[in-house]
Structure formats: C-alpha cells, structure tokens
Amino acid sequence: MTNFHPDLDLITEYAAGSLPLTQSACVSLHISHCRRCQGIAGQLADLGASLFEAQEPVVIGDAQLNAVLARLEEEVPLSYAKTKKDTSNTPAILQRLMRGDFSDLNWKNIGSTLRISYLQTGDPQHELAIYHFNAGGRIPEHTHRGSEMTLIPVSYTHLTLPTNREV
Question: In the chain, what are the domain boundaries?
Fold first, then answer.
C-alpha cells in the first residue's frame, strides 16, 4: 500500500514530459504501482492533449524548420543498449537504465544489510541509485547536499535521488 504520493506539481511536470530523467524515473516507478496517481497522470495527459488540440496552427519560417531538422541529425546524448526481454516485474524505465538485470549491476556494499548501485542517466544535476536491503536492513544515518526522492517498490528495492520534493 502506498502511503505517500508525488505532489500535483510533480505529477503535472511528469505528464507534460518536463521532468529530468532521474525524477521522471522515480515518478514513473511510483505511478506503475499506484492507481491513484495513474488516474491523476492520465487526466493531466488528457488535459494537455486537449489544450494542444485547441491551439490554432502556427506557420513557421524556413529558419525554424531547418533548425528542427538539423537537430534530428545531432548525436544522441545518451542511448540505452537493448537488453534481453525481462519477464520480471521490473519497470521498463529501469530495464533501460540498468542495461541488464539486477544481477548485472555494479553493487557497492554498505554494511551487512545494504548495497547500492548507481545508474548512469546522463543528468549531471541528479543521481539515480538503487538500494537493495536484506531482511532487517535500513538506511544508515547520513547527510548529503540537497534532498532526496525515495521510492520503495514491492520488491523492496530502494530508489533514491536528490530533489526538492518527496515521493
């Protein structure tokens, strides 16, 4: 059962596609397990689509069109290797970021009940880490700059990243 939910601003940014990848990953993972937030995100996406449909078409000049077409040929900033088909309950966004499964990650042991693996997202402003707890494990007391967004999925894997909001 989910006790905490992203605030409406965070879900709105997620539905609009304007969140950084690391934050979007956390919200996506939460939404994949929370019917309440799935409904809210769906309503916001529908609202956004309606607003776009209501807009009058805008004629763009050749310079703008050429700028957009030129961007299509730019190097992709971060690409994800295709992974074998995952038949587990691992959400798609994690499958892409992990480039394999949990056993393929580079884990760092923190004490006897906790290990951490950092995922590469290409976002220098945020980090994305998966925490794996053994039975009875807990996060040791710690400090860091900024705040963190934490999600504990059903599998008890702990996902965390710095942000100004809580999930």
Answer: 8-163
pLDDT tens track for 27-55: 988 888 889 999 999 999 999 999 999 99
User: Structure pTM?
Assistant: 0.66
Query: Taking the alpha carbons of 38, 40, 2, 14 in that order, is the dihedral positive or negative?
Result: positive
Q: Which long-range contacts does 124-128 make (Cβ < 8 Å, 24+ apart)?
A: 125/20, 126/20, 126/21, 126/22, 126/23, 126/161, 126/162, 126/163, 127/22, 127/161, 127/162, 128/21, 128/22, 128/25, 128/26, 128/97, 128/159, 128/161
